[in-house]
Amino acid sequence: MAVVKLLANDEVPPEAQALFARVEAEYGFVPNILKAIAHCPELLTTFVPFWATVYRSPTIGPKLRALAALGTAKAQQCDYCMSHMTVSARRAGYSPEQIQAIDPAGGMSGLFDERETAIVEYADALTLNPKEVPPELKRKLRALFTDAELVNITIAVGLYNLTSRFLNGLEVDVESIFDSGQRAAAK
Hints:
By secondary structure, this protein is mainly alpha-helical.
């Protein structure tokens, strides 16, 4: 059970209600993270457009972004994030075997290309010890990605760290539609 009440549509101000309606129309439900953030409508109405811009940015595309997100979620041990990001990774084209194998400590060999492996390694390093990303990993990233891609990857990892820490800190439960690991009830 969450540390804070997850607000329903009728408990939030009009600007948050409008945002909830747009999110529900697009995803089929309002994520619990937004129901928690809704206690601060000014943050909610700023956070969602920013998150959406990062999530939809074409710079790295949905496949690489899904790896950045899922790598961060696994490093943070955020069940909520892993549930959501597993769906994103499946939608982006990753197999269940690949999703299960996402692990910067090894086991990714043969299932991912060099760019994909580097993103997961970077997500892990940046999440667990941001001041000590190994120099050899930085060199590999510079060789594999453009400056714009590196900026986008880093912002995505940072944003997923923010959401993971928020969700873990407030013990926000994953929505029941994720119980089976599927989005059965969602669009």
